[in-house]
């Protein structure tokens, strides 16, 4: 009889805890949907500041604005963390055409890839060789590539339901294409944009020359998916066509920028840090609303919602807006370096860098015990249609912090529309839904609340 009473007692405690958690999460969601600031913050970032390319005036304006907004939240501490970042400048708009015969041309939309060198002042025109990936270069050999423009035309795989998997499957041609093609004597590369959608928007993104000497580097550009289809079809009809493109981008000296940081100090375990973050820089073609203005304002909103609901965290909750994720990851690496030097104890880090779409759940990089603990909370999110609690990738800026003991997580919104806008001119404010953005911020805050309440499994 006594054993039954003890079991009943512990079952009652679990029920009370679940009820408390349910009530707090409901308060968080109610506050996000009625008193949230994320959408207004994003409106200013997108429409008053615009694209925030690392090292640009707009990036500094974003630093100043977000710091001022964090100051207004009445946090325990707000500060800027200096970091040297690369400064790549796009220059005047790029121009390209397909020449089927001398004087007969069709213009196609392109954009220089981030980090690319310029073409000659008069532009670059050459015959074209189409490949589906890096492995095709070796098969073709120098004889068929030298003096030509290599056209990388491997589409994202439409059969992948998780579009991030599809992106991962073909992004190597964008990042390493110029480096590899130059080894076979190519004079330039044109890469199919990383999107599942057929449109006229070229998608930017970072590329690398590796250790290729400066004098051997060749210009690299992205072509829109409609442009890629046209180029591919035209090549099949006439392999002797030529492609022309002109861009005057340049790499300048590194400049100083900042990570923007704000925190609420924990009441009982202030030395244990829970981090939420996104990256403040963006590409320059659109205004960076989904990538990653949304993640930044959601991270700021976590602190705002904790304050609004009157919750006093046990552990220190810190929001970090990282600089230079897109073309260098300098902000994430700088933050890690300082955290290690100060011997800070980060137990949990959550990143939002997958757009401001409807949240579907979270992916975790952690021990099995911590993954199981997180999955035990999934039922608390079911009323909000957030069901995905799986092992998987967290985020680029928080991964440098991984010490093998902490928990890393990534917000996982619905991904089907993300690559329609990723790194493109149409990544703009009007494509962000206010309610979806708020639901993502509420989901993040709720997960932070749970990790703050129960800690991690050691």
Walk me through this protein's architecture.
- With 458 residues, the chain is of the alpha/beta class.
- The protein has 14 helices and 16 strands.
- It has helices spanning 2-35, 38-49, 57-72, 135-140, 142-145, 163-168, 172-182, 225-237, 289-308, 330-341, 368-376, 378-381, 418-421, 434-454; strands spanning 77-89, 95-101, 104-107, 110-112, 124-131, 149-152, 188-192, 220-223, 242-246, 250-264, 269-279, 315-322, 345-351, 359-365, 388-391, 407-413.
- An eight-stranded mixed β-sheet has the order 1-10-12-11-13-16-14-15, sandwiched between helices. An eight-stranded mixed β-sheet has the order 3-2-9-5-6-7-8-4.
- Helix 1 crosses helix 9 (289-308) and helix 2 runs antiparallel to helix 9 (289-308).
- It is elongated and about 75 Å long.
- The chain starts with a helix and ends with a helix.
Write a compact overview of the structure shown.
This protein is an alpha/beta fold and 458 residues long. It contains 14 helices and 16 strands.
Note the run of SSEs as H and E.
HHHEEEEEHHEHHEEHEEEHEHEEHHEEHH
The helix-and-strand class reads: alpha/beta
Shape: elongated
Quaternary structure type: single chain
Low-pLDDT segments: 9-13
- The percentage helix is 25-40%
Mean pLDDT reading: 96
Record the strand order, biggest sheet.
1-10-12-11-13-16-14-15
The biggest beta sheet, please?
Answer: 8 strands, mixed
Strand content: 15-25%
Helical segment count: 14
Alpha carbon gap, first and last residue: 35 Å
Query: Over all CA atoms, what is the radius of gyration?
Result: 24 Å
The tally of beta strands, per DSSP, is 16
